[in-house]
Design goal:
By secondary structure, this protein is mostly helical. The protein has one domain. Helices cover 61% and strands 0% of the residues. The protein is built from three helices and no strands. Helix 1 crosses helix 2, helix 1 packs across helix 3 and helix 2 crosses helix 3.
Length: 64
């Protein structure tokens, strides 16, 4: 699964805190790829850090 696809799953997650959305996306990624949820979460986090220019800052309004 590409980083863009992982970010797409994060962006399509139901509304909630950033952490809740990351958990939801990690579960979906894990089911699709056969990876563990922990591995999927770590890969999603790395993809988010590397691709943070492509994310809308308003998606992180729960951090302010």
């Amino acid at each position: 699964m590409t980083k863009d696809e992982m970010l797409g799953w994060f962006k399509s997650a139901p509304k909630g805190s950033r952490h809740q959305r990351m958990l939801w996306a990690a579960q979906k990624i894990a089911r699709l790829t056969g990876a563990t949820e922990g591995d999927a979460y770590q890969k999603l986090l790395i993809a988010m850090i590397e691709g943070q220019k492509g994310l809308d800052p308003r998606e992180f309004d729960d951090c302010a």
